[in-house]
TrEMBL record:
Name of this protein: Trypsin-like peptidase domain-containing protein
Taxonomic source organism: Micromonospora peucetia
Species lineage: Bacteria, Bacillati, Actinomycetota, Actinomycetes, Micromonosporales
Domain of life: Bacteria
SUPFAM superfamilies per the UniProt record, alphabetical: Trypsin-like serine proteases (SSF50494)
Gene3D superfamilies, sorted: Trypsin-like serine proteases
PANTHER family: LYSYL ENDOPEPTIDASE (PTHR36234:SF5)
Length: 409
């Protein structure tokens, strides 16, 4: 099978209770607002605008909508709702706010809320993403409903905010439908929610905190993580490789279940991509990395960081993988097939010039996950699926190329 067909774009069909766990919010929660939802009148954007990057798990679709909010009392709130959606990400084509006015994009229960004023200042308001077109994208809201509200003391009926598009996240069945399957779960899927290992494997659990879910340009999904002591992140080149894609993407830290096997993840902490620093040369079967930074770095520093191994690993080395396969809340691959059975190990430390191989379980969305050894150093960057030889790019070779750009510790 060609490497291009072996990239991680798997959608596992048999998922646990918290495998997707995307905090779906009930439609009645939005009915407290005396406003008709806009989304039922939306249309799917042209196919050319949909997310379709090869090797990346597609997790949503772009919808177009015509919605304007005014500062008049009866025009201050608009509901963007797509029943069953796993997230909603709203685009403002125009924002005409006076000093002191602001707009919020929130979940119906208010637990997740993003605030934007006329200055779009990340230091005083919320983060946001851009796509090179007029306007900006609010950060995504978990669930199927986003409540957009204008906060103003004015009574003018002029339009102050215009919504023209939104991304809506696929549910579990749709992710399976829109992604081809490569066998990357080898035999029995032994992955479990990260929190399941909080007591039994505290070090593995703690190192996983530096790993985030990567929402790419509104509709794609990979895994990403902080590397070194400064504001630097790593993922795969095949996940994104341009400044525009970095600026259009979200990194979601602490997106994991609160209890083992429970469908109860919180929204976590979301930041946007800032600066693209370096992209590997060669194809996706080679080193396949992208190094970049994030906005609002202070918001994610508490989640810790990971360090690259600077020497080659060896066959038989114990290993584990934290990641967001299928776009799910964070799971850990520690055991091969059975809990407390054989642990994951490196099957071939020199599978080829660039890669090591293993049969530790992964799936679509795990692209970009760190592969760590028992000393909790990153020995590979996961990027290719195909049991029994799932593959990760050798971390020491990546280190040799980016050493001057990171503080590896």
């Amino acid at each position: 099978m060609k490497h291009a067909m072996r990239r991680l774009r798997t959608a596992a069909v048999a998922l646990g209770a918290c495998t997707l766990g995307l905090s779906l919010l009930s439609v009645p929660a939005a009915e407290a607002y005396a406003v008709q939802p806009l989304a039922p009148h939306s249309e799917r954007a042209p196919e050319s605008d949909q997310f379709s990057a090869e090797g990346v798990t597609t997790v949503g679709e772009l919808r177009t909508v015509d919605g304007a909010l005014s500062s008049a009392r009866d025009g201050r709130t608009q509901i963007i709702q797509h029943p069953g959606a796993s997230y909603v990400k709203v685009h403002f084509s125009a924002l005409r706010l006076a000093h002191g006015d602001y707009v919020t994009v929130a979940s119906p229960d208010g637990r997740e809320s993003h605030r934007y004023d006329r200055y779009l200042n990340r230091a005083t308001g919320s983060d946001y993403t851009t796509d090179g077109q007029p306007g900006f994208w609010a950060m995504s809201v978990e669930g199927d409903t986003a409540v957009v509200t204008v906060h103003s003391s004015r009574s003018s009926r002029g339009n102050v905010a215009t919504i023209d598009r939104f991304w809506r996240g696929y549910d579990r069945a749709e992710i399976a439908q829109h992604n081809f399957s490569t066998q990357s779960v080898c035999s029995t899927d032994a992955r479990r929610d990260a929190v399941c290992y909080q007591s039994s494997h505290p070090n593995e659990y703690a190192r996983g905190n530096a790993v985030a879910r990567l929402l790419i340009s509104g509709g794609g999904m990979c895994t990403t993580w902080r590397v070194g002591n400064t504001n630097r992140m790593l993922t795969n080149k095949h996940c994104f490789s341009t400044q525009s894609a970095v600026s259009g993407s979200e990194m979601q830290f602490n997106y994991q279940c609160a209890t083992c096997g429970g469908a109860n993840p919180g929204a976590g902490t979301k930041v946007s991509g800032a600066t693209l620093y370096k992209v590997s040369s060669g194809g996706s079967n080679q080193l396949d990395y992208t190094l970049y930074s994030v906005n609002n770095f202070a918001n994610i520093q508490s989640f810790g960081t990971l360090y690259l191994a600077t020497t080659a690993t060896t066959t038989g080395t114990r290993m584990y993988i934290p990641g967001h396969g299928d776009g799910s809340p964070k799971r850990l691959s520690i055991f091969e097939d059975t809990q407390n059975g054989a642990t994951c190990t490196v099957k071939n430390a020199n599978y080829n010039t660039w890669n090591i191989s293993y049969s530790c379980d992964t799936s679509g969305g795990n692209s970009g996950s760190p592969v760590l050894n028992a000393s909790h150093r990153v020995i590979a960057l996961h990027h290719l699926g195909g049991c029994p030889s799932n593959q990760g790019a050798k971390a020491h070779l990546i280190y040799n190329e980016i050493a001057s750009l990171i503080a590896n510790g």
